[in-house]
Automatic annotation (TrEMBL):
The lineage of its organism: Bacteria, Pseudomonadati, Pseudomonadota, Gammaproteobacteria, Kangiellales. PROSITE patterns: TPR (PS50005). TPR repeats lie at residues 103-136. Residues 59-208 form the Cytochrome c-type biogenesis protein H TPR domain. Pfam families: Ig_CycH, TPR_CcmH_CycH. It comes from Kangiella marina. This is Tetratricopeptide repeat protein.
């Protein structure tokens, strides 16, 4: 399409020149028509060999090669690197679009996307599945699938599906239970307690389900008390002077003096840097490492332009001085003043 537009502009320029009394009479018209024909034939040739035609041809050949495989077999081939993830996604989209009202296909497609970490595409597939089969149970099922995936984006999508159920049915017990679990998994213990306490109102006191939910609330309360002490608060002192809109993510890290992978990593939205960020043992990345026994460490806050955990040129960062040991419940201050080269 871009090639066609470029050639069309070239033709228009030629036309302006030709009709600007450079040529006269039949010669002018003949030259204009010749240029138009050459431009059209050239654009069609480029389209055929390099443009959308080639892309469609490749897609058709891929579909013919994979046509007899089930969705699970396709996912297995991608796992074994027999086909690329992009080839898998292309084939999945082709199959589902050919049967747009098939709930089972959209559901399985969403689960495959989650398996390969494609949370955004999974959300699109699940939304198509909900359109094919609306209902609270459908949304709760997909919320559970997102929670099992476990990323921040997946938890957010899970919350959205459950909230849509609660908007229609504020007393839906399954939605209240799942929303509590969703917040508990994100260590948002007070929110989990609130949802579970509301759920208790609809259970018979002394019943088995009442006791199970009460036990979950007690566990969340214990975790809440532990979280009040079992963390480090990180404050970015110069956050108001930073142009945060340039960055997609912020990362709070605990690094060792001798280098190597970080001990702990927490990904946060840049807008949240106006608030103290809590690092807990749950953020530890290295197996067998304790946040409170690691020696000679410093805390770093990095602003990422791409949203990736790997530092890239242009990212901004700041770090504390070297600390012999980290102390639970302490507050540390960081100024982001350096740039990744």
């Amino acid at each position: 399409m871009l090639v066609w537009l470029a050639l069309l502009l070239m033709v228009l320029v030629w036309a302006a020149w030709l009709f600007g009394q450079v040529f006269t009479g039949k010669g002018r018209i003949f030259t204009y028509i010749s240029v138009l024909l050459i431009a059209t034939i050239s654009s069609l040739t480029l389209y055929y060999f390099q443009g959308a035609h080639q892309s469609l041809k490749d897609t058709a050949e891929l579909h013919q090669r994979l046509d007899g495989l089930s969705l699970k077999e396709l996912a297995s081939k991608a796992d074994q690197k027999e086909i690329t993830v992009q080839e898998l996604l292309s084939e999945l989209r082709l199959r589902t679009e050919s049967d747009p009202h098939n709930f089972e296909k959209w559901r399985e497609l969403g689960n495959i996307f989650l398996r390969f970490g494609e949370v955004g595409r999974a959300e699109q597939a699940f939304n198509r599945a909900v359109a094919a089969k609306p209902g609270a149970e459908t949304r709760i099922e997909f919320a559970r699938n997102f929670m099992e995936q476990g990323s921040a984006e997946a938890f957010e999508n899970a919350e959205r599906h459950i909230n849509l159920v609660l908007m229609e049915e504020p007393k839906h017990e399954g939605a209240l239970l799942m929303q509590g679990i969703n917040h508990f998994k994100q260590q948002e213990y007070q929110a989990a307690i609130d949802y579970w306490q509301e759920l208790l109102q609809y259970r018979e006191p002394g019943s088995e389900s009442y006791q199970i939910i009460s036990g979950q609330i007690d566990q969340a309360k214990r975790q809440l008390k532990l979280a009040e002490l079992n963390h480090i608060s990180v404050v970015v002192d110069n956050v108001d002077s930073l142009l945060l809109t340039r960055y997609k993510k912020a990362f709070v890290l605990v690094r060792q003096e001798e280098g190597g992978p970080p001990i702990a990593v927490k990904s946060v939205d840049v807008a949240q840097l106006h608030q103290p960020q809590k690092l807990t043992p749950a953020n530890v990345m290295l197996p067998g490492t304790s946040l409170w026994t690691a020696e000679n460490t410093y805390i770093e806050v990095r602003l990422s332009q791409s949203g990736l955990a790997q530092p890239e040129p242009g990212d901004r960062f700041g770090r504390t001085s070297l600390k012999k040991i980290l102390t639970p419940s302490e507050t540390v201050h960081v100024e982001i003043t350096q740039t990744v080269e």
